[in-house]
Amino acid sequence: MKVVYKSEFYTLYQSKKDRYHYLDMGQKTVRLSFCQLLALRHKVLSIPIENHFDSYSNQHGFEVLMLCNKEHLFVLNTLEVLDLKNLVENSLSAMGVSSKSVLLLQ
Amino acid sequence: MKDIARQNMSIKVESMDLLNGQIKMEAHASAIYLAMASWCEQNGFFTSAKFFYKQTEEERGHMMKIFQFLVDVGGNPISPEVKNINHDYSSIVDVFETTLEHEVAVTKSIHNIVLKARELGDITTERFLDWFVLEQVEEENTIRDILDMIEVTGTEGVGLQMIDNKVNDWME
Ligand SMILES: [Fe+2]
Ligand SMILES: [Fe+2]
Q1: Which residues are near ligand 2, the ion (C-beta closer than 5 Å)?
Q2: Rounded distance between C-alpha atoms, residue B4 and residue A36, angstroms
Q3: pTM recorded for the entire structure
């Protein structure tokens, strides 16, 4: 497997054998098709991070993230969400389908 | 190393985001025109109401065209959330003036995506939008013609009713 991008907490790999990406989330590794990766990106980028700094909108600063047709469930804190946003954006740049690159938390 | 990303998607991610934004804008337009149809019905402008029902369908058609394009290129089309639909208008003139403003905003948005696609070297998206660029010329022109007709007819006396009847000329 080849590393596409490594952020502080997560690593995205591309398989040499099949047509999938593998996202190492620490507790477990999730297999993603490219479509699922785009869906993950949409979900992650839609998380309103400002709410994490507003005790009204998001009292505890956690996000629940479900992936791959609700097959996986993750609970992420503020730093993890930021890191994941960073990972998805930079991974797509690394893959050559996006020219955006962001640097967060570093 | 297989280029999985490129094999799965034939446009750039930034273009996809902008096109999803455009999907939202077309859905918003469709909803606004439906609100205008409602206003027209309630204020006795029945021909104009028909005109806006037709516009509503057309805008949904535009939205679906982009949605389908995103499917075709392997993107991730997002069903839009539509809110803040104004239902208050001061007159039929206000309705058509707001329509023109809205169409101009849509034109600008499409031109912006064309320019961004060009910047990204995303020829597929740029070519796809050709149809929309020309469609906007037509749309703006229709509303401008109706506003000209309103100007000539005048809103005094039976003017308003004449205006409504004449709107029929812009419905093939
Ligand atoms: Fe449109
Ligand atoms: Fe339009």
Answers
A1: B 139
A2: 13
A3: 0.90
Spatial separation of the C-alpha atoms in residues B50 and A13, rounded to whole Å: 55
Chain B contact for A90 (CB, 8 A cutoff): no
Which two tokens mark A30? Answer: 């999730």
ipTM: 0.83
- Using a CB-CB cut-off of 8 Å, the residues of chain A touching B13 are 38, 41, 92, 97-98, 100
Q: What is the pLDDT of residue A53?
A: 87
Token digits for A88? 């998805």
Burial of A93 (0-12, 13-18, 19+ CB in 10 A): middle
Q: Is A46 exposed, middle or buried (0-12, 13-18, 19+ CB in 10 A)?
A: exposed
Domains and CATH numbers, chain B: 2-170 (1.20.1260.10)
Q: What is the pLDDT of residues B43-90, one digit of tens each?
A: 999 999 999 999 999 999 999 999 999 999 999 999 999 999 999 999
